[in-house]
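thread: overnight batch results

M.L. [08:02]
morning all. the overnight job finished for the chain we discussed friday. pasting input first so we're all looking at the same thing
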Amino acid sequence: MDGLAYLHLAETWETPTNQAFRGGHLAHPTNNLNSCGTGILAVHEKGTRCQLQRTNSKTHLNLASTPLLFLTIALTIANLVNPALAAIKKGDSGPEVAQLQKTLEDRGYFRAKPTGFYGTVTQAAVKKFQAENNLKVDGIVGPKTLSALKVKSESAIGDNESAGKTSADLAESSPSPSPRENRNQLEDTIKNKPKQPSFQEPSLPPFKTETPAKISENKETELLPKRSESTQGKMTLIKTIYGKISPKSIVHSGAGLFFAQNMMYNHTITVYDRKFKLVKTIGDRVNLSKFGFSKFKGNYQGSPVEAAFSTDGKYAYVSNYQMYGSGFDNPGSDRCSPAAKHDQSFMYRINTETLKIENVIPVGAVPKFNAVSPDNRFALATNWCSWDLSVVDTNKNTEIERVKLGAYPRGIVVTPDSKSAYVAVMGSADIAKVNLIDFSVEWLRNIGNAPRHLVIDPNGKYLYATLNGEGNVAKVDLKTGEVVDRVSTGRQPRSMTISGDGKLIYVVNYGSNTVSKVRSSDLKVLQTVNVNASPIGITYDPETNQVWVACYSGSIMVFQD
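M.L. [08:03]
and the structure it wrote out:
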């Protein structure tokens, strides 16, 4: 009997609040950045025109430079009064932020209406600009970034005018994948009941592994007013999706797509949009020799288990529990060790525009969880049976480091500054802290029995861990490394996701067939809802305040909060 696997978290979008000058530098997938045909990148969704402003040649320098000049003067004065306030960063608000957004909008990096609040969407636009102008990619607008914006401002408008193009001339649509599944497969709960899986549950001390037992289209976060992420609201079921699925995980891309990984039981990844439409079913069959692995002849199948996305939402990295085909004769299971020399597996890189597998990357034995560092340098995979962590260079699509960790590494979360990764080592009570500069390892000891899934608050101050072996969720102060609180949410808490503002945590309780909504400040359980059998994966969409739950028994449930 094949062993089974687990889940990850999706990323967050910008949430305006009334609190000014909040800290935090967490980058998440936000908008797709696409060429408008002028060398200027613009953020847009499918069918949405890139917005480039045409300016009168006699006044374009004034229009481009005057607001930025005011912004520069304001920051200079702030620097003289208090150097700490000289930079604009995530959490800040005010007219200077609105002007920054307007400047980024004019340059094609920010497609939404300026709000005056510096959230994740603005941060992603700033990081994109920094990356393309050889600046430090930290999402903080300091003197160097501001100066480059001013120069870019003048040159961009000059280039646009010399080309003689209007925004209509530059409009471009992203390709829209054709659905390959019958829409009738997406049924409401009234019409269908979840189907029980045909395989059985193995056990693995000290924990048990799991077995599978209409709204309007929303656009980018800052384009439309957002619902506030309230801790007082109630989760309400609005949709249940069925079909030929056995979802082990469900992960939001940060750009309106949701990837469900259906393991070896269906050999697929099913992709949905915010209207709950099945956009595409991606098969896991690949010809490894065409990707440069000549010793493997013909087609092979994988077994998609988890997914993680680059911060721009352009790429999905999907782990495969094992590979199927000639040459893969020693698959791993849920009870394994490196001594058995189980088959190594592959991670797929999928382009989210074409929804095609465009790279396959060798990793360890039975890779389960994936994460991408906020700076997009690394894709990480925990290898369950080789007891280590694969570090993949995303530019080279090659594993550059293998970090030994111990029995059954599982959940991963990367700090907002991309300097460290925390890894839950499920065969212990500990969490590893991996330095992503030199790949050394430190430890948070005695966190709890069988830590499985991890999330981190947007400021990087607290870490939250599901403790599968004891049925609790623990809150860890990362400054001291100590558990400061814990709460029981249900039997066998598996995966979690965290709201965009970090105020709420949503936990799937596999053994209780429930989802718990938990306030992060004091770990108070605010609400528990019943779901279909074997809830195992969960993700959060901050633009809609919707929670998507993957039930291993064959359904995906969507709750409005």
